[in-house]
Amino acid sequence: MALRPHRLLASAQFAGSVGDGAFYVTSALYFTRVVGLPTERVGLGLTLAWGVGSLVGVPLGRLADRRGPRGTAVGLACATAVAVGTFLLVRGFPLFVFAACAYATAQSGLSAARQALLAGLVPAGERTGVLARVQSTLNAGLAVGAALGGLALAAGTAGAYRSVLALDAACFAGCALLLLRLPTVTGGGTAADGTGPGGAGPGAAGPGGRRLAVLGDRPYALVALVNAVLLLRLPLLSLALPLWITQRTGAPPALASGLFVLNTVGVTLFQVRAASSVTGTDSALRVLRRAGLLMLASCAVFALSAGRSAWPAALLLCAGAVLQVVAETWQSAGSWQLSFGLAPADRIGEYQGFFGTGVAVARTLGPLLVTWLLLGRGTLGWLLLGAVLAGASYAMGPVARRAVRHRPVTAAGAPEPGEAAL
Asked: N or C: which end of the chain has fewer CB within 10 A?
């Protein structure tokens, strides 16, 4: 694959993540202060929305396989822009839920379609490395967007919040334009010029002729389930740590935004390096085990900040955040390798849509579980969360090996390239 499509993929990801970063840091206050929705209703609406998003990710991924991932990704990027624009019209709870469901649906499908698009443009052995570069670009965009959102927070006016939503919609429109410049990729993951990694064409029936084969692929589903447990780290920065800092430590509340920036910058700088050693299933499982142990250590350090005064608490929280950055880069690299390597070549979009439901599950259930554990049980809750993440990282080994034994083979009867045999 030429360098230009790499850059276009990264640029499209950057455009969308700038809008996402600005939206993430301002949306809660927009819906509560400008629209006037109660906090509980905002939480309920978002839970419903991401629940819907988790359900539609698989069929939208299958649509990308059948109709082509580039066109599907462009359409879903435009749909995301429209959904964000609809938030500007929200004046009550029913329209908020409708717009939030449309947003979550488009985002879930767009993620699966982009993964299928990448799979069609990048040879199997290079996908983890390319994903690492794209992820670094994503985090850089989140940092830029969060900074722009911070300007709106400082202004604190309804117009400033609405300008962030307009920016987010414009960013996804720009993302669609960039994706449109990429080569056409067939549903089986082959570029129109024949340079892609190969696979069946659009509409291929796939293994066993099932319309949604992933729903019957229990070994892969179990891998996705364990990965969803590992993704319980997602609510830590956006929800758990801000509440922990203000309720359980003497650190200044502004430290929460500093930890967010530390995370996004750290992932931007080190994600590619972390992924460089991940070339197959064996190496993916190794880095996942290391990530689990580091998350346990990170949670233990966060727990030590309880009851500390400003400076000791801030130092411990920063140390825990650094450990989390390293763990996140390893966990992401290992999960990417497994999600692509264990999926049939002609159903990348469908399988990525299913694997990506872990993010929606973590966003839906994670806040309830994490706040119950950490704020309700304090130090013990941090240690329990760390133990769960470490246990899941080690459980991935036998689960992934079972999936390898049951995975489809290529027409030649051999495992897909880029994976180590077990």
From this structure: C
pLDDT tens readout for residues 75-93: 999 999 999 999 999 999 9
Chain centroid to Cα 347, Å, comes to 20
Token representation of residue 250: 């003497």
d(CA 169, CA 106): 13
Could you report the per-residue pLDDT of 11-56, keeping only the tens digit for each? 898 999 999 888 887 787 788 889 988 877 887 888 788 788 877 7
Select 211-409's CATH number: 1.20.1250.20, 2.102.10.10, 1.10.1740.110, 1.10.1060.10: 1.20.1250.20
CB 231 within 8 A of CB 361: yes
The full DSSP string for 165-182 is HHHHHHHHHHHHHHHHTS
Kindly report the pTM of this predicted structure: 0.70
Q: For residue 373, which of 386, 359, 390 has the smallest C-alpha distance?
A: 386
- Say whether 203 sits in a helix, a strand or coil: coil
